[in-house]
Amino acid sequence: MSTELLSTDHDRAVELVKSVQRSVMNEIVSNILGDPTVEVTGDWIATPVGKSIGTGTIGICIVAGDAATTEDQSSWSMVAKVMDTAAERVTASNFAKSEIDTYSSGILDSLSGPAAPNCKFRGAKFYGLTELPERELHILWLEDLSHLPNPPWDDVMFSNVARHMGHFGGTWLLNPPENRRGFMMMDSEKDFLSGADRFSVLLDNSDDEYVQIVLTDEYIDANNWMSANFTRILDHLQTTERPLAHIDAQPKNLFPGVREDGEPETIAIDCASPGYAALGMDVASLMASSLTWFEVDVSRAKQLQPLIFENYIEGLNEVAWSEDSDNVWLGYMTVAGRRAFNPPMFTATWINDPKWITWMETNLGQPAEELAIHWRAVFEWAFPKLKAAAERVGIV
Questions:
Q1: How many CB atoms neighbour CB 170 within 10 A?
Q2: Are 348 and 362 in contact (CB under 8 A)?
């Protein structure tokens, strides 16, 4: 991936949002306020927010303004995600189109809310989709969650989110929609776990100062073990229960909220790559992604691991799932162990494109040497747990 892909075009996104016809905006805002008589008054303000490393997202804005109804004057806000569905056709998966299809299908609504009141995990509310005059550009209008807490989370937030993800997986298994939409990515275990092809780059550059930190004898042995056994693990997980999964359930994509009845809930954004994955795999991203991006250290992860897994199992049980948890633990550690194996590969990316060192140091707030030391510590802690989980179910 080139560093050019990291630049979100905020100015263009703002311009496109402001160009939307007032009649279209009236329709979208009427969905927010639940009143078909809405008339947007004055100009709406579009404020850039966030960033994307994908080619399909042009920019993300919080859009706000005022509106009049037959009875009242109201303020409103929402998120506008400006997307180019043609930008990713050179890749295996068009994530922009997939996200549009996911929200438009209503499948997330079928697994939460009135349709599944015991499930406290839902997608951000979908207010509408606008197709722009420029070819294959769209605006996805979604719920504004900017008032909800961002990471870092406390133990209660991690516990609640993990439990709610258990609700989501269990609800799918108990009450699957009649038709599983064809746009959803299958074999999502492999999408979770890509990246091992850079190992040879590490071996070829063993004298690099950062590679020397991560390329330990233990790491080389782990690569040999993965080569011999990982396909067997994936094949086994394909035979287990595989509900719909978010696939990118890292804390930055999840918002701890509160329902109208006062109960906690979890709201997901960036639903661009849903697919079927073994139980336990999706929730492992809560910890694995946090470790990868230096949001928690290994000592914190040791506290979080039982907290996340136990609450996930309890969430499954709360929607009447009651199967053996060994395979769930394997699914969990398959992601956690594999993602612990992958971050040292970033040093290979630094060799191929040194600009990534500057990007990671800037965005993760740590010098490159500290990042490499952290990733080595993550691997040394998590990878043995994957091996033990595979041995526990008798695969290896």
A1: 26
A2: no
The number of beta carbons lying within 10 Å of the beta carbon of residue 187 is 13
What CA–CA distances, in Å, run from 234 to 27, 32, 73, 87, 274? 46, 42, 55, 31, 18
Going from the C-alpha of 115 to that of each of 52, 104, 109, the distances in angstroms are 32, 17, 7
- DSSP 8-state code for residue 124: P
Query: What distance in Å separates the CA atoms of residue 333 and residue 280, rounded to the nearest whole number?
Result: 8
Instruction: Give CA–CA dist 257/255, Å, rounded.
Output: 6
Please name the amino acid found at residue 335. Answer: V
**CA 329 – CA 313 distance, rounded (Å):** 10
**CB neighbour list of residue 34: distance below 8 Å, 6 or more residues apart:** none
Instruction: For residue range 198-222, list pLDDT tens digits in order.
Output: 778 888 888 889 899 999 999 999 9
Phi-psi region of 154 (alpha: psi -120 to 50; beta: other; left: phi over 0): beta
In the predicted structure, residue 38 carries a pLDDT above the cut 50: yes
Contact by Cβ (8 Å): 326, 393: yes
83 Cβ neighbours under 8 A, 6+ residues apart: 56, 57, 58, 96, 99, 100, 137, 138, 139, 140
Q: From residue 113, how far is each of 171, 189, 264, 320, 375 by CA, in Å?
A: 12, 28, 13, 18, 39
Distance CA 171, CA 177 (A): 10
- When pLDDT is averaged across residues 306-315 and rounded to a whole number, the result is 95
pLDDT tens digits for 321-332? 777 789 999 999
Distance, in Å, from the CA atom of 236 to the CA atom of 29, rounded to the nearest integer, reads: 47
pTM for the structure as a whole: 0.89
Higher-scoring residue by pLDDT: 334, 180: 334
Please state, in angstroms and as integers, the Cα–Cα distance from residue 160 to each residue in 120, 144, 256, 282, following that order.
Answer: 9, 21, 8, 15
DSSP 3-state assignment of 315?
A: helix
Q: How far apart are the first and last CA of the chain?
A: 35
Structural domains in the chain plus CATH codes: 1-96+123-144 (no CATH), 150-396 (3.90.1200.10)
